[in-house]
Write a structure and sequence with these properties.
Largest sheet: 4 strands, antiparallel
Helix content: under 10%
Shape: globular
Number of strands: 32
Structural class: mainly beta
C-alpha cells in the first residue's frame, strides 16, 4: 500500500445486547400453557388445557379423568389423582376445584382436590368456583342467577369446613344482610392477584344495571350508572369492595380495557385503550388517586404491566409508557406485530408481538433480543431463576 494512500477509519463498534439471564416465561399458546427457558428462548414443556397456581410454581392439567400436577421448573410429576368433572375451575397452593363446563343447571357438583385426596361437594344453584383463600378453607364462587337461564351473578363464599354457602363481608368486615348482595350483569374482563396480600382484583365492564352492596345496604335503589369497576376480593379476610371507574371506562369494547398491579408501590392501574384513559388507585384504601390520558389505540386487545415507577400498556402494535405516579406519557414504542401481552422482569420488558416475544430495555425500549413462540396467545408471567 502506498504511504500516501488515505487510511480508512476503523469501523465503529456496535454495542451488543446483554445475553439473556436465566429465567422462565409462562405463556398461553395454541399448544397449551408453555414454559419457556428465557436464556435459550425455547419451550421446555407445553401442557394442553393446563393452569398454574397463584405462585406459578405448580401446573395442573386435567386429562382423561385424572388431575396431574407438575413442578413448573423441572416438569416433574408431583401428583396424579382420579377426579370427577371436566374442567379446572380454581386453583391454590392448598386445593384445586374441578367441575362441569359452564351452562344452565340447578345443582352443581364440585370436586375438591387437596392433600387428603379428592372429595365431591354438591351445591344448589349454577355455581362456578373462582378462587380460594390462602389456607384453602374458603372457596369463592360465582352464583349465576336464575340458575337455568342466567343473566346475572353474585360472588359468594363456600366455607369448606362448615359446608355452607353465604355472602361475603363488606370492607369494614360486617356481614352483608340478606337481599343486599350485589348482582353483576357485565363481563369479567381480567383478573390480577396480589399473592402476598391475598387480594384478587377483577375488572368488570358494561354494568348498566348494577348496584353495589354498599348502595343496597344504604337503601339506594337507583342505579349509579357505573359502566366499569374493579371488584376487590380479600381472599383471607373474606371481604369484597367495588372500586368504581369513571366514565368513559366501560363504554368502549371490553377487550380495550386492562388492569395492572404494582404490589410494591401499592398501586393498581386501569387503562381503556379505546379512549386513552388511564387511572391509578391506591390498594391501601381502594381509592383513585389520579387520572390521565394517553394516546387512543383503537382496535386490538389491551395488556398492561407495572413496576419500577412506570406502567407499560400494550395494544395494537404499540407499547405506551407512562410515569407510574403522575401518569404523564414517557414513551411510545413500536412492536413488530399485534400485542400479545406484556410482563416485567427486574431488568427488561417481555412483550408478545404476533408469534414473537420481544425483549425490551425498560428505560429506552431498545430491542435486546427476540425469539419465536408459535401459536402465541398471551405472555402471562416471567421470573428469574438462579443461573
Amino acid at each position: 500500500m502506498s504511504a500516501c494512500a488515505a487510511e480508512r477509519p476503523a469501523p465503529k463498534s456496535v454495542p451488543t445486547a446483554p445475553a439473556p439471564k436465566p429465567g422462565r416465561l409462562f405463556a398461553t399458546t395454541a399448544a397449551g400453557l408453555a414454559v419457556v427457558d428465557l436464556a435459550k428462548g425455547t419451550v421446555t414443556a407445553a401442557y394442553p388445557g393446563a393452569v398454574a397456581d397463584g405462585t406459578w410454581s405448580t401446573i395442573h392439567q386435567l386429562k382423561d379423568g385424572r388431575l396431574r400436577s407438575y413442578e413448573a421448573g423441572s416438569g416433574a410429576l408431583v401428583a396424579d389423582e382420579p377426579v370427577a368433572g371436566v374442567q379446572i375451575k380454581a386453583v391454590s397452593t392448598q386445593v384445586i376445584a374441578v367441575g362441569p363446563l359452564p351452562g344452565p343447571r340447578r345443582r352443581t357438583s364440585i370436586t375438591l382436590v387437596g392433600e387428603g385426596g379428592a372429595r365431591t361437594v354438591e351445591l344448589d344453584g349454577n355455581i362456578e368456583p373462582e378462587a380460594f383463600s390462602g389456607d384453602g378453607l374458603a372457596m369463592y364462587l360465582l352464583d349465576h342467577l336464575p340458575p337455568e337461564r342466567p343473566d346475572r351473578y353474585r360472588v359468594r363464599m363456600y366455607d369448606v369446613d362448615a359446608g355452607t354457602v353465604g355472602p361475603l363481608q363488606t370492607r369494614d368486615k360486617t356481614p352483608v344482610p340478606s337481599g343486599a348482595e350485589e348482582e353483576m350483569r357485565g363481563r369479567g374482563r381480567q383478573a390480577v392477584r396480589d399473592s402476598a396480600a391475598g387480594v384478587l382484583y377483577t375488572l368488570y365492564t358494561h354494568q348498566d344495571d348494577h348496584l353495589h352492596t354498599r348502595d343496597l345496604v344504604a337503601g339506594r335503589d337507583q342505579s349509579p350508572g357505573v359502566h366499569a369497576f374493579v371488584h376487590v376480593l380479600n381472599l383471607d379476610q373474606r371481604w369484597a369492595y367495588c372500586l368504581d371507574l369513571p366514565a368513559p371506562f366501560g363504554l368502549g369494547p371490553p377487550e380495550a380495557h386492562t388492569i395492572a398491579l404494582d404490589a410494591a408501590a401499592k398501586r393498581l392501574y386501569a387503562f381503556d385503550a379505546s379512549t386513552g384513559s388511564v387511572v391509578v388507585a391506591s390498594t391501601e384504601d381502594q381509592a383513585i388517586r389520579r387520572s390521565g390520558r394517553l394516546g387512543k389505540q383503537p382496535g386490538g386487545t389491551a395488556y398492561a404491566a407495572a413496576g419500577g415507577r412506570r406502567v407499560y400498556l400494550a395494544v395494537g402494535s404499540r407499547v405506551l409508557v407512562a410515569d407510574g405516579e403522575t401518569l404523564a406519557p414517557v414513551a411510545d414504542w413500536a412492536l413488530p406485530g399485534p400485542a400479545r401481552g406484556v410482563v416485567l422482569t427486574a431488568d427488561e420488558l417481555l412483550a408478545g408481538a404476533g408469534d414473537q416475544v420481544i425483549r425490551l430495555d425498560l428505560d429506552t425500549g431498545a430491542r435486546l433480543g427476540a425469539f419465536t413462540l408459535p401459536g402465541l396467545q398471551e405472555v402471562r408471567h416471567a421470573e428469574r431463576v438462579p443461573g
